[in-house]
Design goal:
With 138 residues, the protein is mostly helical. It is 78% helix and 3% strand. The protein contains 6 helices and 2 strands. It has a two-stranded antiparallel ribbon with strand order 1-2. The longest helix has 23 residues. The two termini are 26 Å apart.
Length: 138
């Protein structure tokens, strides 16, 4: 079942804000929250993530009906990639080295920002590339 493209983009906007605050404050706790959000999104899909639930219950009813849809697999893969970067960032902030926390969080922030502002999902593009490569190899 396809999903409303505005949902993942809303999630990317919230993620952008959260990760920016993490970089400014160095809060490992806030990054732990974002890591959990990525994990829930990757495991259950965008509809079951905290930001997906917020979009569905609060934001979407105030918008018009969706006009564009997408397959849920690429955004779900993108959240798994975000989970890896947030996890690395969490390790860096909690255990060190500090530069790992900054670099990994910054990379996740850049990807979320691209999606939120321009609708370009870097993780989704990675998913499609991997899919094409595995189809050719198989």
């Amino acid at each position: 079942m396809d999903i409303d493209v505005r949902g993942p983009r809303f999630g990317a906007a919230v993620t952008t804000v959260v990760l920016a605050v993490v970089l400014v404050t160095g809060s490992a706790w806030l990054l732990a929250w974002q890591t959990l959000a990525f994990a829930l999104d990757a495991a259950g899909g965008v509809g079951r993530s905290p930001y997906g639930v917020l979009f569905r219950r609060v934001v979407r009813p105030r918008l018009g009906p969706p006009t564009a849809f997408e397959s849920p697999e690429p955004p779900r893969f993108a959240q798994a990639v975000g989970l890896v970067f947030a996890g690395l960032g969490l390790v860096g902030y909690a255990l060190g080295p500090q530069w790992l926390g900054l670099a990994a969080t910054g990379a996740a922030l850049a990807a979320a920002f691209l999606n939120a502002l321009f609708g370009y999902c870097l993780g989704c593009e990675m998913y499609l590339l991997v899919k094409r490569l595995t189809v050719r190899a198989g």
